[in-house]
Amino acid sequence: MKTNSFIFSLATATLAIAQSDEPYYNVTSKPFNLFVTSEDGAVNSSLGACHVGAALESLCLSASNSISKPDPGDAAVFNFNTSIYSQAPEPTFGVPGILTWILHGFDFNASSSVYFSYVPTDDIVLPILQAGSSNPQLLAFDTQDKLNIQGFIGRTVQPPTPGTYSEIYRWYACQTYFASYLYVNLAWKLGTGKPENPSCVAVNVTRTFI
Fold it and tell me: Where is the secretion signal located (predicted)?
């Protein structure tokens, strides 16, 4: 019953915000850094924002070296935007929202948000920062400040069945090629199992407030 009431409240809020000029994701967190760590400690780095196109950045590992980033870089400063109209489906799950970052230009500051860039032949997707928030990927931070995606549809049964919400953690640090740039990036695994990319290492993504 809680799941049904959550969906109803979300639909009601969406209708209400559509009838106003107020942005939906209207609650901004304090600034923070993101850190990725593997279970064995081999991966331990903050996340940076690495250029992959005009007003586009990937979430690269700051401490990594690659062809497109031969030297370590700085940790990026992020915010997390949620909405007064949203709520967590379960108390420990965290309120869904969007990950944001400010692009500082020569004479402008532009807010960017993360979307997922899909390639049909890949089993991983890349979180990419782009200006605005027209196509964001919904994310959440649990009570341990770990980044996750919340799922609702059970696809391991037939037919696929809606059920209770779950937290999913399928983050990897991978050497990737995107728009002619080679970085060690944060990636999301589609489905279960290990990625085809042999460089990928499973990681947790945790925020630390500044």
Answer: 1-20
CATH of domain 27-209: 2.80.10
Domain segments of the chain: what residues? 27-209
Joined together, the tokens standing for residue 121 give 């032949």
User: How confident is the model at residue 21, as a pLDDT?
Assistant: 64
For the chain, 210 residues long, the average pLDDT of each consecutive 10-residue run is 47 48 88 98 97 96 95 96 92 93 88 96 98 93 96 78 86 97 98 96 98
- Counts of helices then strands in the chain (DSSP H, E): 1, 15
Task: List the beta strands (DSSP E) in 42-146.
Answer: 44-53, 56-61, 78-82, 98-104, 109-117, 124-131, 140-141
Q: Within its chain, how far is the Cα of 2 from the centroid? A: 26
